[in-house]
Amino acid sequence: MGIIIKPIVTEKMTHLGDKLNRYGFRVQKDANKIEIKQAVEAMYDVTVNEVNTLIVAPKKKSRFTKGGVISGSSQAYKKAIVTVKEGDKIDFYSNI
């Protein structure tokens, strides 16, 4: 399994990609910025200028059932926001 798990394709990340050349990826928790940069450059054939990482905290979730309240949480994950060189683009929809 590689460093990059999947790209984050949301309305906010699409806007950042169009305006600021910034793209979001869900990455492995033990990956560092250098490994993320090398993985993105190899996978998408772009030049990466900057990598910012953050750990997304789990969200508490609960639901009401016949048996009572079931509570739990979503998983925490690491997110990387990658800034690519001006003029380079990443097209997530080309393989569809």
Mean pLDDT: 93
CATH class (first level) name: Alpha Beta
| Number of separate structural domains | 1
Order of helices and strands: EHEHEEEE
How much of the sequence lies in strands comes to 35-45%
Q: Biggest sheet, open or closed, and with what strands and sense?
A: 4 strands, antiparallel
Number of helices: 2
DSSP strand tally: 6
- Going by helix content, strand content and strand pairing, the class is alpha+beta
Overall spatial form:
elongated
Q: Stretches where pLDDT falls below 50 for ≥5 residues?
A: none
Please supply descriptive tags for the structure shown above.
4-stranded antiparallel beta sheet, alpha+beta, 2 helices, 6 strands, single chain, Alpha-Beta Plaits, 96 residues
